[in-house]
Amino acid sequence: MSKNNEKRRNEILKKLQQQPSLRIKELAEFFQVTTETLRKDLFVLEQRGQVNKTHGYVHRKDGYDELPIEVKVEENTELKDQIARKAIEFVTDYSVVYLDPGSTTLSIVRYFALKKGCTIVTPSIRIVQSLLALKHEILLIGGLIQKKGSTTTGAFALDNLKHVKIDTAFMGTDGFKDCQGPTTFSFQELSVKQKVIEQSKQKILVCDRSKFFKTGTYPFARFSDYDKIITNPIDSKEKAMIDSAKEIVIA
């Protein structure tokens, strides 16, 4: 598979998240490829169940609002790394740490090389893969695999979490514009996130500045549920959006 082709397909998905329908001819011109090449990309995305194609147009598929993790990890990488470097300061050696599925929490993984003897709990297969080279215990929460997010969900995941006491939980979000707390696009992850909050001593929301301008479908908590929110430098209007949190940490 060509990396250029896959990168272009990911860019198409990002464009469709901003605008639900796009003209195929205009997309081809934007990417400077032939319409035949563009249609091959759309055929692949359609086979994956990510788009619908009609004569001359491509449409965001109903219910396909969440971007795949492969796309998310390429967005705002510097901002996420700043947050990750600040986040690791709140982890103590030999503690139990939960990492939510998502690209911001994935950025924290590399900094666990600075810590000793942690037990890292996560439902994210992608995070587990990144942790394998580090000398920490890894507890993968079992459950039904949600392929798009590369994570486990459902009743099995909830049951496993009942038996784990978490010292510090790092939670992500798909955005919270015009909301009183973080949201997610994934209904399947909703109850898992809420159970993690219930089981954790220290709850930290990690979110880059772009999340102030996005909103997911399902709210799963309030900002006041968190001990800390770690984000990038924000203005007074953005700070007012999250001021019900106990502490705002600027990375």
Q: Quick recap of the structure?
A:
The protein is α/β, with parallel strands linked by helices.
Word description of this protein:
It contains 10 helices and 14 strands. With 251 residues, the chain is α/β, with parallel strands linked by helices. The chain has a 7-stranded parallel β-sheet, sandwiched between helices. It has a 3-stranded antiparallel β-sheet with strand order 1-3-2. Strand 5, helix 7 and strand 6 form a beta-alpha-beta unit. Helix 2 packs across helix 3 (35-47). It is globular. The two termini are 37 Å apart.
Q: Hey, roughly how much beta strand do the residues contain?
A: 15-25%
Calculate the terminal CA-CA distance, rounded to whole Å: 37 Å
Radius of gyration: 19 Å
Mean pLDDT over the residues: 88
Structural class: alpha/beta
SSE topology:
Layout: H1 3-18, E1 21-23, H2 24-31, H3 35-47, E2 51-54, E3 57-60, H4 69-72, H5 77-87, E4 96-99, H6 103-108, E5 119-122, H7 125-131, E6 137-140, E7 144-146, E8 151-153, H8 155-161, E9 166-171, E10 183-184, H9 187-199, E11 200-206, E12 218-219, E13 228-231, H10 236-241, E14 248-250
Parallel strand pairs: 4-5, 4-9, 5-6, 9-11, 11-13, 13-14
Antiparallel strand pairs: 1-3, 2-3, 7-8, 10-12
Helix pairs in contact: 2-3
